[in-house]
Design brief:
The protein is built from six helices and seven strands; from the N terminus they run αααβαββαββαββ. It is α+β, with helices and mostly antiparallel strands. Among the domains are: about 70 residues; about 160 residues, Histidine kinase-like ATPase, C-terminal domain (Heat Shock Protein 90, 2-Layer Sandwich), CATH 3.30.565. A hairpin with a 2-residue loop joins strand 4 and strand 5. Helix 2 runs antiparallel to helix 3 and helix 4 crosses helix 5.
Length: about 325
């Protein structure tokens, strides 16, 4: 037993103090064997649990890749086929608006010859034409936005690589803010960063990760602008905060805002493609689904906490190590 051999039983032959010691040693031997068995079972269970967890994560990544691949295949030719007629509609609606304006200017020279009923009819026709053409232009612009977002579902993909988190995160956040400011000249915001030095390297596809962050930032900016426009709160100061931290084998990026927030009844649907609460040309309902797909495909997750009227917080996670099958490229969807 001292040498580690627990297989040989202890011989028991006399009924004296030596025999009692031999009995104790035999009990110890059997208990030691049972402990070894329990330790082995516990180790095997732990290894099996880890293997199952890795298998589950791999299955989720494969399912996400398959889902995006199928969606990409479905819409691969669809955006191109739509964009051409939409471009023609937009072009001729713009031309029609110019002709309408010229016609209106020409008819102005005949106003003195018209009676009040005819003038009223003419003004009504001009206003209706202008309104109709404006609605056509707005809806075509929204359709073109949806087409562009559908095309972006087929983003680059490729192999994940080790990158420094903040070198990818910071430019993506600023790009998102600047793009929103360009689109909405009446709203600009300076993001606040709280980046942990411990959150260093991360295994990501840089372009895909940046796309996900840009979409989260754009969503936050819309929420901030909506609260400013809808509530007119005195003293309200929009805030966009971006944090990073190390969470074990993953890093977490938190994008939070004090915007309008998300109503509880629509929370289960916010990651559904084409679901949006924005009216008109404000959104196509693809930003958050795209971000969630990219993150999950890379082995991470995207979660949300929100209170309507207070704000929202999105937490994006990504692994710090390359997956075991990193030699296999991620699905090419473009």
């Amino acid at each position: 037993m001292a040498g580690g051999d627990l297989n040989a039983p202890v011989p028991i032959g006399r009924d004296d103090e030596i025999d009692q010691l031999e009995n104790a040693l035999e009990i110890f031997r059997r208990q030691a064997i049972e402990v070894q068995r329990l330790n082995l079972a516990e180790r095997l269970y732990s290894e099996l649990r880890d293997a199952n967890e890795q298998l589950r994560a791999m299955q989720e990544r494969l399912a996400e890749q398959e889902k995006l691949a199928v969606l990409s295949e479905i819409v691969s030719g669809f955006p191109h086929e739509l964009s051409n007629p939409q471009s023609f509609v937009k072009k001729f609606s713009d031309v029609s608006a110019e002709f309408t304006e010229e016609l209106s200017e020409m008819l102005d020279g005949y106003r003195e010859q018209l009676g009040d009923p005819d003038l009223e009819l003419l003004d009504g026709i001009e206003a209706e034409l202008a309104s109709s053409l404006d609605r056509v232009g707005s809806n075509v612009a929204r359709a073109l936005t949806i087409v562009r977002r559908m095309q972006s579902l087929g983003i680059a993909g490729g192999d994940a690589s080790i990158n420094h988190l903040h070198s990818v995160l910071t430019p993506a956040v600023r790009i998102g803010c600047e793009a929103f400011a360009t689109e909405w000249g009446d709203f600009t915001i300076e993001p606040e960063f709280e980046l942990s030095e411990k959150a260093g390297e991360v295994a990501i596809v840089p372009r895909d990760f940046s796309e996900a962050v840009v979409n989260l930032v754009a969503n936050a900016c819309h929420s901030l602008r909506a609260r400013r426009e809808c509530t007119n709160e005195e003293g309200y100061v929009p805030r966009l905060r971006v944090l990073s931290r190390q969470d074990g084998e993953q890093v977490a990026v938190v994008v939070s805002d004090n915007g309008i927030g998300i109503p509880e009844d629509i929370m289960p649907r916010i990651f559904d493609p084409f679901f949006t609460t924005r009216h008109g040309v404000l959104g196509a309902g693809l930003g958050l689904p795209l971000a969630a797909g990219v993150v999950k495909r890379g082995g991470g997750d995207l979660t949300i906490e929100s209170e309507f009227g207070v704000g929202a917080q999105f937490t994006l996670t990504a692994p710090v190590r390359l997956p075991a099958n990193s030699g296999e490229p991620m699905a090419e969807l473009s």
